[in-house]
Amino acid sequence: MMDETNTAIIQLLQEDSRYSPREIARLLKKRMNIDISFSTVRRRIKELESKNIIIGYTTIVDPSFLNLNYPICFFIETNPKTDINKIAKELITCVPELLYIHQVAGDFQLACLARCVDAESAAKLSRRIAQIEGIQKIVSHAILRTFKEDIRFNLAESPTCLSL
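Below the sequence we write its predicted structure tokens.
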């Protein structure tokens, strides 16, 4: 399923999900010398969607436009007697400001990322998180600088991390 053409189609859609199948076919020919019709591109995209390889399309908004210039990581220690899935579900439901919620190995069980307006709003968010049953401890780290932030997969450059 993941041949060179499908990989190239995904890369182009990650570059700009507004590309039409006709534009993708043109770019495949121009950039990679892959000669494919727009109807074949459309069929391949539908197949990638139906197999949940492509799971959606979104708009990426500059956080500074929303005045969310204070990114912060929360590392959460949970009570071992409380189901971590229950805690994660409550975080998802009750704390929509959290952009990422990951179960992790190590001293903490959860790592979360949020973007806040300032330190005061981050402190309020931390207090709200602490009220969730089963959370024992929160350690927060303000992010001083971001060197890379990208939700796209680099399919051409990361063969050691991919098993397609």
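The beta strands are 70-78, 98-103, 110-116, 135-142.
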